[in-house]
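Students often ask why inverse folding is considered easier than folding. One informal answer: many sequences map to the same fold, so there is more than one right answer. In these notes we will look at a single instance of the problem. The structure comes first.
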C-alpha cells in the first residue's frame, strides 16, 4: 500500500488509483492531474479528461525513472575496483528515494468559469532503481515491492575464474547493497572456480543492482584504424610545392568473446540478462573500465532438443573510452 513504508522498483508498473471524485453535472470539462514530486521538482505530470468518471488509475513508473536518471554507478564500481590483498570484501550501498503525490481536479463551474481544486498531497512514496518483469509480477502478485532477491543469477553454482571476484546483492532497511568478494574470502557466494584464465565483468541487472560476471578468455582482439590524407600547401615561393598529410583517426579495439558452454539455465541468463544490460564494465589491467557489449548474432539459441551439447552465447566488447 502506498505510503506504508513499501519501496517500489522505478521500472515496474506502479499504479496509483484515484477514487471518490465528484463533479458538477453541468461541467463539460472534468480533468484529473497527478504530479509526482521529488524534492522541489516535478518528476512527472499526468493529466487525463475523465469524462465524468469517479475513479481513475495512473501508471507513474516513467516519473520514478526520472527520479533516478541522475544516479551515478561509479561508487558501486569503485567498491569492486578497490579490493586489495587486505580487503577481502567491499560493499557499496544506496538508499531509496522518497517522493510525494499531488492531486488536482479541474472543471468548469456553473458560471462557466474555469476552476482548479486545492491539491491533495500524499507523502510516503519510496522507490529504487530496477523492475519486476511481467512474469515475476504474475507469479508473485503479492510481492510488488522490493525484496532481498535483487540478484538475477540462477540458483545453480556459477563458473568463474580462479581469481575472479564474486558478488552478493540485497535490500534491507531501505538500502540496496552490492557486496564484492575476493576469491579467497570464505564469506563469498558458492561458485565453481576453473584454473584457466577468465575475463571479468560488472554489469547493471534489470533490478538495478551491480553484479559480477566472468567469461572464459576465449577471445580474439581486433584493432581498427583509419587514416585520411589531405593536400598540404607550403609557403608561397617561385616553385610552390604540395605534399600529403596523413591524419590517423578512428582507432578502436574490440574483442570477440563467448560465455563458454553453459547449461540451458545459465545460457538463458547470459542472453537475457548480461547482453540486455544497459551498463557494462570489464576488468582491464586491474581496473574495471566502461565497455560496450553487443551480441555477435541477432538471435541466440539457448534451447534445442536436437542437440545434446551445452549452449554458448557470443558477444563483442569494445572499450567505451576509445574512439
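Output (designed amino acids):
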Amino acid at each position: 500500500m502506498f505510503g506504508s513504508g513499501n519501496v517500489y522498483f522505478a521500472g515496474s508498473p506502479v499504479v496509483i488509483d484515484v477514487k471518490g471524485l465528484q463533479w458538477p453535472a453541468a461541467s463539460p470539462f472534468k480533468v484529473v492531474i497527478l504530479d509526482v514530486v521529488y524534492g522541489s521538482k516535478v518528476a512527472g505530470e499526468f493529466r487525463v479528461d475523465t469524462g465524468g468518471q469517479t475513479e481513475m488509475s495512473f501508471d507513474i513508473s516513467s516519473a520514478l525513472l526520472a527520479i533516478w536518471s541522475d544516479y551515478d554507478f561509479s561508487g558501486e564500481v569503485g567498491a569492486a575496483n578497490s579490493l586489495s590483498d587486505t580487503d577481502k570484501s567491499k560493499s557499496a550501498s544506496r538508499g531509496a528515494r522518497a517522493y510525494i503525490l499531488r492531486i488536482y481536479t479541474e472543471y468548469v463551474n456553473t458560471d462557466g468559469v474555469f476552476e482548479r481544486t486545492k491539491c491533495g498531497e500524499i507523502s510516503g512514496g519510496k522507490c529504487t532503481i530496477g523492475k519486476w518483469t511481467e512474469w515475476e509480477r504474475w507469479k508473485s502478485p503479492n510481492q510488488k515491492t522490493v525484496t532481498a532477491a535483487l540478484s538475477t543469477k540462477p540458483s545453480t553454482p556459477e563458473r568463474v575464474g580462479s581469481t575472479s571476484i564474486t558478488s552478493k546483492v540485497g535490500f534491507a532497511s531501505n538500502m540496496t547493497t552490492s557486496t564484492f568478494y575476493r576469491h579467497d574470502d570464505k564469506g563469498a557466494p558458492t561458485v565453481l572456480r576453473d584454473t584457466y584464465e577468465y575475463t571479468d565483468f560488472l554489469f547493471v541487472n534489470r533490478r538495478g543492482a551491480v553484479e559480477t560476471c566472468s567469461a572464459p578468455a576465449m577471445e580474439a582482439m581486433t584493432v581498427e584504424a583509419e587514416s585520411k590524407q589531405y593536400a598540404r600547401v607550403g609557403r608561397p615561393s617561385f616553385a610552390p610545392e604540395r605534399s600529403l598529410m596523413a591524419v590517423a583517426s578512428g582507432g578502436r579495439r574490440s574483442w570477440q568473446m563467448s560465455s563458454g558452454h553453459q547449461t540451458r539455465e545459465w545460457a538463458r541468463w547470459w542472453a537475457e540478462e548480461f547482453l540486455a544490460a544497459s551498463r557494462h564494465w570489464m576488468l582491464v589491467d586491474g581496473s574495471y573500465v566502461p565497455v560496450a557489449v553487443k551480441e555477435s548474432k541477432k538471435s541466440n539459441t539457448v534451447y534445442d532438443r536436437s542437440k545434446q551439447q551445452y549452449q554458448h552465447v557470443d558477444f563483442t566488447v569494445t572499450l567505451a573510452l576509445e574512439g
